[in-house]
Structure formats: structure tokens, C-alpha cells
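Quick one: C-alpha cells for this chain, please?
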Amino acid sequence: MALESKPLFHPEVIRQQVRAFSLPERVGDWQPKLQHWAGLIASGRADDFKETALLPDFLTDIFCGLLGYTGPAASADTFTFSRERHVEVDGKVADAVLGRFQKDKEQFVAVLDGLGIHAICTALTASSEGFQGAKETLN
């Protein structure tokens, strides 16, 4: 017996939300930086380096610059982005973690590990361009 596949969200609800949503201005300001990373990857130049050579700049550009997460240097009391953290779940060191970090309390939201710069950059570039295209189509 075949199961009927239904969308998770009703298309009209999504359409209304997309029409009403505007990307923050800083996303447009960061388009050159996204294009830089996309060009570095597309040209094959990124393959000339170990990921560990590019990862610190990439994480800072994308997660702190574009997405607005803050590291410990930005705020001593509370920050939302941390690199090279020991993760209690499997005892490994993650490339980075997202959450809410305070002196006596750590709340982990996401672990960034083994993502690959190429995969993240491709997804961000495609989603930014795709979102703008989808919004233009709906309007």
C-alpha cells in the first residue's frame, strides 16, 4: 500500500510568509563576501589548502559576520559562538558550537563539525539567491 505524501506546511502559508519577509540589509552587504568564498571554492583554489587553514576565517565570516553570532571576545558576559569546544555527547572536539555561553552556564544549540566549507558556502549562496528569486516570483 502506497503512502500519500503531504507537505509539512500548507503552500499558501509559506507563500504569505515569504511575501512578508525581507532579508536584513546586512545580507546584501555580505554578498561580496559570500561571492568571495563561492569563487574560492569554484575555482578550486580552496582545494590547495587544508580545511584547517581556511576554517577559522570562514567560520568568522559566515557565522559571526553574516549570521550575527558573537564570540567570547565580543562580549565577556554572554556569547553565542565558540570554536574548538569539547562536546560532552561523544567526547570529541567540535569545529564550533552555537548556543548561549555564560560564565557559569552553557546552553548548546548546535554543533558544527565536519561540515565542509564547500557545503556551507554552496548552501548559503544558493539559499540567498534562491530566496530572492522566490520572493520576486511571488510578488
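Residues 26-129 form one domain.
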